[in-house]
């Protein structure tokens, strides 16, 4: 392929969450700052942190900050992390 043809490939990102929404949001904002045009969908899988944590991920403020990305949040039915 010559230098005039650019291929715009978008990737999906899957990330695990457990009771540290501030850390995950900071990570997502940093990723957005540097890789905004390369990512299509962010999948957040939460390990039973609770409704208060999930409300951060579903907030309109976060959706606006991550504009151009689709985000999907899923709460696991059973905890699968360390305990």
Number of helices: 3
Q: How many beta-strand runs?
A: 3
- The whole-number mean of residue pLDDT values reads 84
- The percentage of residues in β strands lies in 25-35%
Uncertain parts = none
Largest sheet: 3 strands, parallel
Class computed from helices, strands and strand pairing = alpha/beta
| Global shape | elongated
Q: Order the strands across the largest sheet as they lie in space.
A: 1-2-3
The separation of the N and C termini measures: 51 Å
Taking Cα atoms only, what radius of gyration do you get, to the nearest Å? Answer: 15 Å
How helix-rich are the residues, as a percent range? 25-40%
What pattern of helices and strands is seen along the backbone?
EHEHHE
Q: How would you sum up this structure, described in words?
A:
By secondary structure, this protein is an alpha/beta fold. The chain is 34% helix and 25% strand. The protein is built from three helices and three strands; from the N terminus they run βαβααβ. It has a three-stranded parallel sheet, with helices on one face. Strand 1, helix 1 (21-35) and strand 2 form a beta-alpha-beta unit. The longest helix is centred in the middle third of the chain and has 15 residues, at 21-35.
TL;DR of this structure?
By secondary structure, the protein is α/β, with parallel strands linked by helices. The protein contains three helices and three strands; from the N terminus they run βαβααβ.
What characteristics describe this protein?
83 residues, alpha/beta, 3-stranded parallel β-sheet, 3 helices, 34% helix
